[in-house]
Amino acid sequence: MKAVILAGGLGTRLSEETSTRPKPMVEIGGKPILWHILKSYSAHGINEFVICCGYKGYVIKEFFANYFLHMSDVTFDIQYNTMEVHARNAEPWKVTVVDTGDSTMTGGRLKRVKKYLNPDEDFCFTYGDGVSDVDIAAAVAFHKQHGKLATMTAVQPPGRFGAIELDGNRILSFKEKPQGDGNWINGGYFVLSPKVIDLIDNDATTWEKEPMERLAQDGQINAYFHGGFWQPMDTLRDKMHLEDLWQSGKAPWKRWP
User: What Å distances lie between residue 77 and 66, 83, 84, 89, CA to CA?
Assistant: First the structure.
């Protein structure tokens, strides 16, 4: 099974980091968040990826082209123009990086990579700017069991601000970022049949609008509920929160050795 990763947006709400690189290449713990996403899928046995690039996509291509340089110790012999890579940190990945256009919408990006997918095999689909401890293997098994065209992981995001518990005017306690309003939202981890791509008209199609609405109307999309950790990286504050979790050694999304 392959996983398609959306990695072409401008990341304007994280402009402090994205003026020189696409948002999926913003680093958490010294590694691009895209790397963390691929590691999460790999931990569940998915090692083939199609990356949908757009804005500054060459940065993503360069990262994978020089993966050993980024991940290993290297000795350069300048006199003899040689390079020796030490302790190669190889991943069992096959990564296809596709330029899907700077201004293409999410559905259009998926349509553009159709030729890189197996027409007879379901695939995973997600965004390149968030992490989660969702059980991807369980979501795939759930998708195969219900037999619909699409599965969307549904999550309940935490509240953005702390809350207080009151008895009249008296403050009883403080709650740091309690659970939100209880609504389930799109968590961004999909399992899809290749047939869903036929619902996408062109580059201007947003995946989250017409295609998903059509799937819902036709009864062809089910929710896989995930009550664990889920965190997008939309702002610098989000980035700093993820960095703090990683540096603490307790990053919930780290499910690999």
Answer: 18, 6, 8, 21
